[in-house]
Specification:
This protein is an alpha/beta fold. It has six helices and eight strands, in the order ααββββαβαβαββα. It is globular and about 40 Å long.
Length: about 190
Amino acid sequence: MHLFRLMVLYTALGLGANMSFGDQANFDGLAAVRSGDMKKMVLHSTPTEPAQIAFFDETGAEITLGDFKGKSILVNLWATWCAPCRKEMPSLAQLQSDKGGDTFEVVTIATMRNSPSAIDKFFADAQITNLAKNNDPKGTLARGLGVVGLPMTLLIDAEGFEIGRLPGDADWASDDAYALIDAFIDAQNR
């Protein structure tokens, strides 16, 4: 009898888990549009829920990735002392200018040793005015997300699930990146 109850419980849990992903968008087509720098995008076979660890917005208020639920986001973890981060940041700003809006946003998070004044200088030097200056000063979020190198960019759908990640820098203002972002957004609107 005890075994029967366990089987019923595990079956119910399995069905519940499958139902929770049942409404999930189908991102299988993303693999086909990866080209150029976007070939480095590692797509997950099953969407994963990222750690909900607080970081700080530019006013010093605590926020989490869950605060962006309802909007597809490209999360870029970077640092002021990171040369590849410096190289790719203008293309992230261009992506935000061209594709950002009600359904999509580029979310940049400076992680580890980055003072607010260093972040301000970095953005001023790169002439970036359209990206938020979020900060993960102790790297707690980065560690919780399993980030081992910078920059690291995560693709998170409107339901709050990580679909994939791209290690290293990329040209986010390229036709290849725009094709990937368009396919990502389109998959959620079907």
